[in-house]
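Consider today's protein:

***
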Amino acid sequence: MEPTNQKFLERVVSQKALQMGSSFPCQICVVGFLCGVCLTSLFLAVLTSVGTFGFTGISFSSLSMGNSPLNSSSEIIKLGILEFPVKLSQNLIDGLMHGMMDMIQGYVITSSDYQSKVKETARWVDSKGREPESDDDERVSLLTEAWGALLADREPEESEFSKRFGLSKSSLPNTPHLENCKLSAQVNKRLDTRSGAGRFPPWTTWKGSLNMYPATETDENLRSFKDQPVSDGAYPPWIVGSDEENYPLTRKVQSDIWIHQHPVNCHDPNIKFLVADWEKLPGFGIGAQLAGMAGLLAIAINEKRVLVTGYFNRADHDGCKASRGSWSCYFFLETSQECRDHAFELITNKEAWEKGTIKGKDSYKSKEIWTAKVPRVWGDPWSYLQPTTDINGSLIAVHHKMDRRWWRAQAVRYLMRFQTEYTCGLLNVARHAAFGKEAAKMVLASIDRDWPKVITNQPKSEIEEFVWSNHRPWVPRPLLSMHVRMGDKACEMKVVKFEEYMELAHRIQMHFPHLKNVWLSTEMQEVIDKTRSYPHWNFYYTNVTRQVGNVSMATYEASLGRKTSTNYPLVNFLMAVESDFFIGALGSTWCFLIDGMRNTGGKVMAGYLSVNKDRFW
């Protein structure tokens, strides 16, 4: 049996080593002290043991723990040229070694107490000098909030911005998910306006901002090319994709509608007008209003009249400011300002009414508007629509209203061809709320890690200003848009549960396994709540009060107010148009029109999965 004092020494040394391993202030000193204790203990053990020693050749070995081949009663310790056969306690050795290792581990890794103190007083960096995740989160939050401040209704002054964020506006990195709305509006106005002497807009092969490239103003050949009239092969710049990626003849039809709606001389006595307010009966949603205006545009084309829209009740709110009560709050007008002014002059002219130079919506019966004869100017291109709509697992190739589906798509595409600066701003706010933090993480991963302490301001190159600026804002792709219509719509169509929409989403994901992002639009809070049951999907949606229970759409919209009840559906509509895939209900006019916009926006081959069919098919 080992002496009592030896056991006591083992226990004391081991306990002290463990304690000192978790006490940071003493760690540096204890390293040297404990090594001295270890060596002293070893030599004491040697002196009190019976054994012999002798000189041998130089040899070195290391003490190992756990898998040591040495037995518990005797060890061979080789130090320099002295070899000591020593009888030591395994417990003593283990106690010493465990104490040393725990102390060293405590010094390198640090104890939990020390870590908490460090977090309060300093910032950690890893072996590459990078700041920790918590610091990255701070930078992401700073950048996200700074970007958001620029989207406010009243953009802060430079001094106010600097005081709030400690940054200048010019020091902010590029915003990939936001659009330069002022620049876009300027470019679009140029593309939607005849220039001097009735010349056609610059619909050339030069896209977007390149039409404003200053070098073309000094080069005679380039300027001549830009100013030449549109050719038969040119197409409107608001159409994306080839003929095969859109409904048949979309590019030609859009070009012809624009020409029809923008005569060279609006005061020509042969020009006739159809002036009509947007439908404003209670209970009519934006979808119904668009469907009605599509019918009026068909009548105008059939009768060779220029359509001029009047009062739009949904734009009658403070957000629209100068264009209050007008479609031009959200989208470019359907005709030139010159034609509008002349048409409104003729409204008060009795002779113009008698001659038929001008007509109004009251000149036609309701049925003539809602079931207007589709223009046959372009033949019957709807007869060869590509079957890309899926209902119950089957493609719909033919139905009774193919002509109306094709025409409404063309009409709505024209009416929504260019967004105003206000609508562009609404989309920026929505994208920033949904994707701003992800965009900030991407940007911060690509710039100096010391931002905002180190800021490198580089002037924009020409390729950034005139070429890359034409790219659409970033969104996480692939993106699936899903419009879940429930509530009082049950009186018009078959309403299905959210779970059935998600079954269709899973079908898409089976073919495109990288799909996980969903832009969800719905008026029902229960749908939003059910998204928690699908943790492997990323759901994005607008922050708006939704229905709890079953109330009419008119009552729900009234509770939101005119501004919100108009803005948020239009944002959802346009986000659905830009998404890679779409799931909806064709029995809903809103979904019907989204489908039409997608099919005239280069999305035909993305297909459309519907939970039901249109009630008129």
In short: Confidence is low (pLDDT under 50) at residues 1-26, 45-89, 102-132. Residues 24-47 form the longest helix (24 residues). The longest strand covers residues 479-484.
